[in-house]
Amino acid sequence: MRTQVAIIGAGPAGLMLGRLLDLAGIDNVILERKSADYVLGRIRAGVLEQGSVDLMHRAQVADRLDAEGLVHHGTDLSFDGDRLRIDFTGLVGNHVTVYGQTEVTRDLMEARQGETIYEADDVAVHDFDGQPYVTWSRDGVTHRLDCDYIAGCDGYHGVCRASVPAEALTTFERVYPFGWLGVLVDKPPVAHELIYAHHERGFALCSQRSMTRSRYYVQVPAEEKVESWSDERFWDELRLRLNSETAEALQTGPSIEKSIAPLRSFVAEPLRFGRLFLAGDAAHIVPPTGAKGLNLAMSDVGMLADALIEHYAEASQAGIDTYSQRALARIWKAERFSWWMTSLLHTFPETGRFGRRIQRAEFDYLAGSRAAQEVLAENYVGLPG
């Protein structure tokens, strides 16, 4: 087999890149080690910056997003019960849209024109400094795909970054001593916008996927096991971390999904190695506090698609040569914001009483400063690419 661009990974990043290349007439094949049903079953983020919404429109897959997405003009922060609303629209004239990553993936899957090969075992990338090709096996048969370029959209644990020689790669990482225990429930959300709550018992988040489906989180130690948390225990703990008005309004029910996500910050540099590119979670991880993971992945593949389209249309290397530098500039700003949100809203046992007083001072400063609120709003809704 031969194609112009081999895309490794059929998550939203790989599917979006494939869709943009399809529309530009650039041949591409997507390889995914999991089944389509497994990919669709992943429960992930749900807050889209305007740049991601614009990319969905560019990809001509925004009909359901426009009909079902929930526009949020602000968000609530709470510190030991004291609430502060950040008015995105009033502060910076923009907003975010709540639309689940699962739905983004579904829309892109249904629009897919090129070939997608699911359940591809033993995927390997070869000779990306020369004439690249990809191999995989299926049903005991080894297959080979020759290509011009390889796009590594295969996540943090994928093969693409792992195939780069260690001496060519620099990584930066911070692993946090806690995770998020998340519950998905078919009940109306407790508020029409997200609520981020800091409490001495730990962080909590009230989020949503639709007007009838809610997503809630509580901070737990990194070593915690999901089996230790019954639904009843989760709801009791969540109520303790919310102010009394929100806790009383909370509608609970049996969880339809429950999991613990560890928190880490991670960046790999550079993002290009000859004819191999990294994008999305293969290149970076952010704590979910700032709602940046999916949006960074969309930004990456938007830039990469532009670079490849320019290359094939104009025989130009300009976009390809600057992809890594441009993407990393945006990535590090998002890493900074996600780190800041995480530092403000979570409890860090090692910082003690002094650390909590600093967090309180930060919250009070934010509450009293329009300029500080503008900085938060500008970053949350998405910085320019």
Care to describe what's here?
- There is one protein chain.
- With 385 residues, the chain is α+β, with helices and mostly antiparallel strands.
- The protein has two domains: 225 residues, 3-Layer(bba) Sandwich (FAD/NAD(P)-binding domain), CATH 3.50.50; 121 residues, D-Amino Acid Oxidase, subunit A, domain 2 (D-Amino Acid Oxidase, Chain A, domain 2), CATH 3.30.9.
- Helix content is 39%, strand content 28%.
- It has an eight-stranded mixed β-sheet.
- A hairpin with a 2-residue loop joins strand 10 and strand 11.
- Helix 12 packs across helix 13.
- It starts with a strand and ends with a helix.
Continuous helix count? 13
What's the average pLDDT? 96
Q: So, CATH architecture of the largest domain? A: 3-Layer(bba) Sandwich
Class per helix and strand makeup: alpha+beta
Describe how the helices and strands are arranged.
Blueprint: E1 5-8, H1 12-23, E2 28-31, H2 36-41, E3 47-48, H3 50-58, H4 63-68, E4 70-72, E5 74-79, E6 82-87, H5 88-92, E7 96-98, H6 101-111, E8 115-117, E9 121-126, E10 133-138, E11 141-146, E12 149-152, H7 159-162, E13 170-185, E14 195-198, E15 204-208, E16 214-221, H8 231-241, H9 244-249, E17 255-269, E18 272-273, E19 276-278, E20 284-285, H10 293-314, H11 318-345, H12 352-368, H13 370-381
Parallel strand pairs: 1-2, 1-12, 2-8, 5-14, 12-19
Antiparallel strand pairs: 3-7, 4-7, 5-6, 9-10, 10-11, 13-16, 13-17, 14-15, 15-16, 17-20, 18-19
Helix pairs in contact: 1-6, 1-10, 10-11, 12-13
Offer a few descriptive terms.
8-stranded mixed beta sheet, FAD/NAD(P)-binding domain, 2 domains, 6-stranded mixed beta sheet, D-Amino Acid Oxidase, Chain A, domain 2
